[in-house]
Amino acid sequence: MYCICSNRSFDDILSQQRADPLPLDEMITSYTSCTSGCGSCIKALLAEAEISGLDPIAVSKLSVQEA
Ligand code: FES
Prior knowledge:
With 67 residues, the chain is mainly alpha-helical. The protein has one domain (2-66). 58% of the residues lie in helices and 6% in strands. The protein contains 4 helices and 2 strands; from the N terminus they run ββαααα. The chain has helices at 10-19, 24-31, 42-51, 56-66; strands spanning 2-3, 8-9. A two-stranded antiparallel sheet has the order 1-2. Helix 3 packs antiparallel against helix 4 (56-66). It binds FE2/S2 (inorganic) cluster. This is BFD-like [2Fe-2S]-binding domain-containing protein.
């Protein structure tokens, strides 16, 4: 998948997260332009991060905040 607003693929974003891990909310603000973009891909990006085993606790917290 691809984040149009960040002009980056999810693979690129998650590779950066693996190389230099941050809490997922900081990953979104630091490694993407989602917060200044449309935000439509954030849920899918967080789901892919969870599937990839990246910080599932932070994913759960962010999912609660989105509800
Ligand atoms: S497509 Fe990712 S924030 Fe807009």
